[in-house]
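Here is an idea for our session: we take a single protein and study its fold together. To get us started, please write out a protein record for me. Start from the sequence, derive the backbone structure tokens from it, and show both lines together. Go ahead whenever you are ready, and we will take it from there:
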Amino acid sequence: MRTTHLNRRQLVAVPLALALPGAFAHGEKTHATAAPVVKEQKPWGIAGEPGAVTRTVEIRMTDDMKLTPNRLEVREGETLRLRAVNKGRLMHEIVIGTAAELQSHAEMMKKHPGMEHEEPYMAHVPPGKTGDVIWTFNRPGDFEFACLIAGHFDAGMRGTLRVTPRN
């Protein structure tokens, strides 16, 4: 009887284990979050509210390691929806930050390619899918956006983002 009980557990456990998402940072995981976005001021701005979006900018990502457009100009105080569209067959992501922070993060991703990370200033986008970053650019300056998946940043998958003062 104990053997039958264990077999039933195994029969239930196997399908449940197969149904759970994998713990790989850039695999098929959708990175959907039910928790509210934590708003933390960064040098390049703060997480925005969907109702405050003034425009949507589509950024196409391709397997030739290009982001199109690769230059954006934003007015200080503007809230954008950056819609990352993955036109390739590889996983890509878009991350906003300073040049130094993106470079540092890209180096970390090379050392730990399975590292999971999720912040409101990034979107992980599986092949053929889209992902949104809603961001309020409340500080002027020159920043960047990039794909930090190991090797993609070094291959040139990055762009510049200039936030001009309100004046």
User: Anything to note?
Assistant: Residues 1-34 have pLDDT under 50 and may be disordered. The domain at 26-164 is CATH 2.60.40.420 (Immunoglobulin-like). The radius of gyration is 19 Å. The longest strand covers residues 78-86.
